[in-house]
């Protein structure tokens, strides 16, 4: 029987790696993938706590998180394609129209 | 035995997620991310949630990652050109490590003493995980479930309008 804390620690590590990826990478698609990884880390926490507390509600929440992630993937990738059509690049440092 | 298996799967997940943020080529990052998702699906099976593992493989590794890989190939992205500024890497890593310490601190100081619900491993094996999820989804969570369908509709329309040149 693996204790609950192991799952929570793994989830914290994955979340932090995702944070580092979002803050250091410049390719918009890689940043997007790191956000997906952070969402997955939170999903792992939800399911681990759901088993620990003997309740199904956490897993229903994971279901909704996955739905929102799917919608986010569709709209986010459409935004990137639209940006690529204008600038021929998806480097986030090229997105600076509102910079002073 | 279970602890040993957990250690292996967790190590693979962490290594694959490190590859996601270090690979130069976005395709390699995407493939490593798929590996991370499969490891998480394995952990969901160990947590008595086989339906969630199936959804993880079908929706994340199947649908979302195929979409991402497709867009990477459509845009024909090369590896990141030019140098990364060292300030960005330094401050990003600092903030990430700070987040990690904060999460560990929270884990260590909180004792989990919640009320124990009725869904345990025995019940899941007797009734079936999918049936329990389905009952909760269509009775207690019916309204959020319906609102989700509206969200998906909005996402479909938004994606089409954003990528269309002229409407």
Explained architecture:
- The complex is a heterodimer of chains A (100) and B (167).
- With 100 residues, chain A is an all-alpha fold.
- Chain A has one domain: Helix Hairpins (Orthogonal Bundle).
- Chain A is built from three helices and no strands.
- Chain A has helices at residues 4-24, 28-53, 57-87.
- The N and C termini of chain A lie far apart (56 Å).
- With 167 residues, chain B is mostly helical.
- Chain B is 79% helix and 0% strand.
- Chain B is built from seven helices and no strands.
- Chain B starts with a helix and ends with a helix.
- The model of chain B has no long low-confidence stretch (mean pLDDT 88).
- The chains are: A mainly alpha (100), B mainly alpha (167).
- At the A-B interface, α1, α2 and α3 of A face α1, α2, α3, α4 and α6 of B.
What descriptors fit this protein?
heterodimer; A: about 100 residues; mainly alpha; Helix Hairpins; 3 helices; about 80% helix; B: about 170 residues; 7 helices
